[in-house]
User: Fold Glucose 1-dehydrogenase from Pseudomonas helleri.
Amino acid sequence: MSHSDSSAPVFQHSAYAGIQDKVVVVTGGGSGIGLALAKGFARNGAHLLLIDINAQAMADAKGELQQEFPESRVECFEASVTDEDAIDAAFAHAKACFGRIDVLLNNAGVSINKPSLDITPAEWRRAVEINFSSVFICAQAAARHMIEQQAGVIINTSSMWGVSHSAERTAYCSTKAAVVSMTKCLAVEWARHGIRVNAIGPGYTRTPLVDELQRAGRLDVDALSKRTPLHRLGEPGEMAELALFLASGSATFITGQIYVSDGGWTANGF
Ligand SMILES: NC(=O)c1ccc[n+]([C@@H]2O[C@H](COP(=O)([O-])OP(=O)(O)OC[C@H]3O[C@@H](n4cnc5c(N)ncnc54)[C@H](O)[C@@H]3O)[C@@H](O)[C@H]2O)c1
Assistant:
């Protein structure tokens, strides 16, 4: 198998207990891992509210979801995850449409890959606001509803870079590491309300974000595949399988953890 062999076997969808008819909010649901999360939960019978800043991407995602999973109800709400008022309105909309909120997939995020001395104050604030503060804003908005229900699941999308470190990724690594810390704090605080909070840590995953970095010459996909022990990038659907497991009836004793799915990247010291 070559390092970037696209015919390499990837994954099979599984059926997860306890997802049928759940109401799931997905931030950044219009594209990439967020869209794959939406598809994975819809495949298992959930109903969805997508939140995204890109209305067209979300409309396209809704079309795909309705075609593939006609049994699932899909609602869209255009908002930036950094806007507290818009996020409160999005969760109120979910409650009005579905009557409850069972799962938050706190997934929206942006990449920033730049020498630390060149990062402008605006770029730094954007990374902190979108990758870190928004995760808290959405978790808080979801938990207000989940506490009324005394049940809920929150899954934050960190990154393998939330548990490892690299040159020219200071803003990305440190915001994603902060998400891990936030995940653990919220898990401890909200356990008494029946809310489990975990994080997933994708490794390099084939999404529009990665494609864009590759096109801009900021990522060498062949080199990344070569350094990954499993010799390929992850598929968005593989991240969805992990989130499904964590939201399912098989993970009811798991909270406050980060699960990294990276083909062995972070284990590899070489
Ligand atoms: N792709 C990877 O290799 C990889 C690896 C590790 C972690 N991640 C993380 O996974 C998450 C999804 O990444 P992706 O690769 O699917 O990215 P993507 O760019 O393909 O999709 C991100 C989605 O989030 C939306 N979004 C961006 N800013 C937003 C905002 N302020 N408010 C609402 N929506 C917003 C975008 O419109 C887009 O639809 C991010 O948190 C990213 O950091 C990705």
Observations:
- The pocket of nicotinamide-adenine-dinucleotide is lined by residues 27-28, 30-34, 52-54, 57, 80-82, 107-110, 130, 157, 159, 202, 204-205, 207-210 (CB under 6 Å).
- DSSP finds eight helices and seven strands in the chain.
